[in-house]
UniProtKB/TrEMBL annotation, chain A:
<keyword id="KW-0472">Membrane</keyword>
<feature type="domain" description="DUF1980">
    <location>
        <begin position="151"/>
        <end position="235"/>
    </location>
</feature>
<keyword id="KW-1133">Transmembrane helix</keyword>
<feature type="transmembrane region" description="Helical">
    <location>
        <begin position="35"/>
        <end position="52"/>
    </location>
</feature>
<keyword id="KW-0812">Transmembrane</keyword>
<feature type="transmembrane region" description="Helical">
    <location>
        <begin position="73"/>
        <end position="92"/>
    </location>
</feature>
<protein>
    <submittedName>
        <fullName>TIGR03943 family protein</fullName>
    </submittedName>
</protein>
<dbReference type="Pfam" id="PF21537">
    <property type="entry name" value="DUF1980_C"/>
</dbReference>
<dbReference type="InterPro" id="IPR015402">
    <property type="entry name" value="DUF1980"/>
</dbReference>
Automatic annotation (TrEMBL), chain B:
<feature type="transmembrane region" description="Helical">
    <location>
        <begin position="253"/>
        <end position="274"/>
    </location>
</feature>
<feature type="transmembrane region" description="Helical">
    <location>
        <begin position="225"/>
        <end position="246"/>
    </location>
</feature>
<feature type="transmembrane region" description="Helical">
    <location>
        <begin position="63"/>
        <end position="96"/>
    </location>
</feature>
<feature type="transmembrane region" description="Helical">
    <location>
        <begin position="280"/>
        <end position="300"/>
    </location>
</feature>
<feature type="transmembrane region" description="Helical">
    <location>
        <begin position="30"/>
        <end position="51"/>
    </location>
</feature>
<dbReference type="Pfam" id="PF03773">
    <property type="entry name" value="ArsP_1"/>
</dbReference>
<keyword id="KW-1133">Transmembrane helix</keyword>
<feature type="transmembrane region" description="Helical">
    <location>
        <begin position="142"/>
        <end position="165"/>
    </location>
</feature>
<comment type="similarity">
    <text>Belongs to the UPF0718 family.</text>
</comment>
């Protein structure tokens, strides 16, 4: 790989990193929000590095005409740059949610004293899927008042389900999309909006059938389903 | 222009830059570069239009997302790891390491391993840093112990493990003990059996003064980022393929079998190539597997995985990788199992 190509590639790589963090916010489809600053800093370093190389080459070009060569394997770095620029792959959706269904994300640990009871109010409570799932497990574990008959509003995308209803889904990432696993809540009482459609579902806790001994998947009786655009932060 | 003018180029520059046989001979550098960029863009667009519909668009999307995610995630660690490594070679005097580390390599190995526990670093960063240490005259066995220990036992990783396994401090202790054990034994094994010719160490760069030193820093950094980055892309693509193509049911069906489940999770750690700061969360989600199997997953992952194999091959050469990687893998599985059966 020639020197001009090396510098060009470094600048392109840095520009791509800066573009997805500062310009579009697409980095949220790949990594956690906290990654914004290190990623932008790395992008800036790459742009400066490539730019400095270009400047130096321009100055040096008058002095000596020969070029130094870098490793050919570096060409592969063009692949993620082009992927970001041309394809802009979307956040993971129902395909990955179904594939990783056998190891769903553990809900966040409840507060030490357990979740407080949820009062019935006129306005629905906006709740993360993680909290809803955590509350649903506690509710099935002898504390039904943590969900009760309160109305909640959950946000996620639809994933098909065999055997009635559909899943309201949100992928959870610990570090990057490579480790994403799903939060899933079964939605009853409303037709599926179609796989990968983002929706906001208002509804109440779907109680498991009486007399059931094992824990069931958290579920919701939907009252309203509104389609929404994909949120800026697709992962929970 | 006279040919003799090229003496203006500093004499050490040929040491800083890679030998010409690492690259290809270009026809006209900038044209070739632009053509290749345009070509790969066209290829991706064509793939998107004609090949993707034939596969499963959602699978292709997921592959691309995971591929980009692994690259994006590793990029800052790579850039700052390389910067640290370049800074070590360009600015830290060679005598420093011989003062910090014990003179005898056998004693330097555990010290270097313990140093890894202090410095927070991702595995992508530790490979170039270890290369920089070797270039600065640190014994390869000690640098390798550092390479293995740094991503596995640093404070960030231990805290994330504690968060992922709430109320189970023995998981954190087990991870620390088994990882450090693996790193130190691997270092000693390399000291006892390794040969210098297997390991390609970048030539030691003479430190120049002023402008020249910054220039050495810049070109060392550019070279290492491009080189390691290319291999990182290979690792990212492999990890994305595993993520999208490996049937999840295969993994679930072996969870209950004792020895097999340990080996499967060890292999899975290699294939999934998750960064060491995140792998605890994945291990926590692998319910159904025994604690020992999950500990082995945590010990193997930061030391051997697809992107590390690619990076180590890139930095230290194939002759090194084919010997050191199986050695590390075997040691990590054995010490993870041993520590797990005692502690968990």
């Amino acid at each position: 790989m020639s020197r001009p190509a090396q510098n060009l590639l470094l600048v392109a790589l840095g520009a791509a990193a800066l573009w997805i963090t500062l310009a579009t916010g697409e980095y949220l489809s790949y990594v956690r929000p906290g990654f914004r600053i290190p990623l932008a800093a790395a992008g800036a370093v790459l742009v400066v590095l490539g730019g400095a190389g270009m400047l130096r080459d321009r100055r040096a070009a008058s002095a000596h005409g020969h070029h130094h060569h870098g490793p050919g394997v570096a060409w592969l770095l063009a692949a993620p740059v082009v992927a970001v620029a041309v394809v802009a792959p979307p956040a993971l959706g129902s395909f990955s949610a179904t594939r990783t269904a056998s190891r769903p994300a553990p809900p966040p640990p409840p507060p030490d004293e357990g979740y407080p009871a949820l009062p019935v109010t006129a306005e629905p409570d906006d709740m993360s899927l993680g909290e809803y799932i955590g509350r649903a497990f506690q509710a099935q574990d002898g504390r039904p008042e943590v969900l009760g008959d309160a109305t909640v509003r959950l946000t996620g995308f639809a994933t098909p389900r065999k055997g009635g209803g559909w899943f309201l889904t949100r992928m959870v990432i610990a570090c990057c999309a490579g480790d994403a696993v799903p939060f899933r809540v079964v939605v009853h009482g409303a037709p599926s909006p179609g796989a990968d459609r983002w929706v906001r579902v208002t509804g109440t806790w779907h109680r498991p059938p009486a007399g059931l001994r094992r824990t069931t998947e958290p579920a919701l009786d939907a009252r309203r389903v509104i389609r929404i655009p994909r949120p800026a932060r697709p992962y929970e | 222009m006279m040919a003799g003018v090229s003496v203006e180029s500093p004499a050490w520059e040929d040491d800083v830059l890679p030998p010409p046989d690492w690259g290809r001979k270009p026809r006209s550098p900038l044209t070739t570069a632009s053509a290749l960029f345009a070509g790969s863009a066209l290829l991706l667009v064509a793939g998107r239009l004609w090949i993707a519909p034939a596969l499963d668009v959602r699978a292709v999307d997921a592959w691309t997302t995971v591929f980009v995610a692994v690259c994006v995630q590793a990029l800052p660690f790579l850039v700052f790891g390389v910067a640290l490594s370049a800074a070590i070679t360009a600015f830290v005097p060679a005598g420093f390491w011989t003062r910090v580390l014990p003179r005898r390599p056998g004693a330097a190995v555990p010290v270097a391993g313990a140093l890894g526990a202090v410095l927070p670093g991702c595995e992508c960063a530790s490979v170039p840093v270890a290369g920089g240490l070797m270039a600065r005259g640190v014994a390869p066995s000690a640098a390798l112990a550092f390479l293995l220990a740094a991503p596995a036992v640093n404070p960030v990783v231990l805290v994330s493990t504690a968060v992922a396994f709430p109320g189970r401090p023995e998981m954190v202790a087990g991870r620390f003990a088994a990882s450090l054990l693996t790193a130190v034994v691997a270092g000693w094994a390399w000291l006892a059996f390794g040969r210098g010719s297997w390991l390609r160490v970048l030539p030691q760069r003479p430190s120049a003064a002023g402008d020249g030193r910054w220039d050495a820093f810049r070109s060392a950094m550019a070279h290492d980022i491009l080189h390691a980055g290319g291999f990182l892309v290979v690792g990212g693509a492999a990890a994305a393929t595993i993520n999208v193509a490996l049937p999840a049911s295969w993994v679930a069906s072996v969870a209950g079998i004792p020895v097999v489940s340990i080996l499967v999770l060890a292999l899975l750690a290699v294939l999934m190539s998750i960064c060491s700061e995140a792998d605890a969360f994945v291990a926590a989600s692998l319910t159904g597997f025994s604690p020992t199997a999950r500990l082995v997953f945590l010990v193997v992952g930061p030391m051997v995985d697809l992107k590390l194999i690619a990076l180590q091959t890139g930095f230290f050469g194939r002759a090194f990788a084919v010997r050191f990687i199986p050695l590390t893998f075997a040691l990590a599985v054995v010490s993870g199992t041993a520590v797990g059966s005692v502690l968990l």
